[in-house]
Design brief:
- By secondary structure, the chain is mostly helical.
- The protein is 59% helix and 0% strand.
- The longest helix has 17 residues.
- The protein is globular and about 35 Å long.
- It starts with 11 loop residues before the first helix and ends in an 8-residue tail after the last helix.
- The protein has one domain.
- The N terminus is likely disordered.
């Protein structure tokens, strides 16, 4: 049986902290993420985007961040989109999710992400 190797700096502790700070465990009843969590969440996402992630880790990060975006208020989604737009290693599935959100949220990723840059 093959084992999956994590990158030298595993995103798992950061994802656990993100899960706790974002209020996802408390938002399962359908509520929005508390606004006081916004700054901490943005900082944690920025930390995640500086890590060198394996494909599997990137998918895990995408899963968690999509859950965060679904629970977040619009201003946090825009802030996260701005951070993701500058990340060279953001998971493609996450960027596609953001790109399909409302234009205010999608705009930073669509305009600035290297993934969506026009190559001529």
């Amino acid at each position: 049986m093959a084992t999956t190797q994590l990158s030298s700096h595993s995103p798992l502790p950061v994802l656990a902290q993100l899960y706790n700070e974002s209020g996802l465990k408390d938002a399962s009843a359908g509520g929005l993420m508390p606004s006081q969590a916004h700054e901490g969440v943005v900082d944690l996402v920025e930390e995640l985007m500086t890590m060198e992630l394996s494909l599997r880790e990137g998918e895990l990060v995408a899963d968690v961040l999509i859950c965060v975006l679904r629970q977040a208020e619009k201003d946090l989604c825009i802030s996260l989109s701005e951070k993701l737009a500058r990340a060279e290693n953001a998971p493609l599935r996450l960027l596609m999710y953001v790109a399909n959100e409302a234009i205010d949220i999608a705009r930073p990723v669509l305009r600035n992400s290297p993934v969506f840059a026009l190559r001529i």
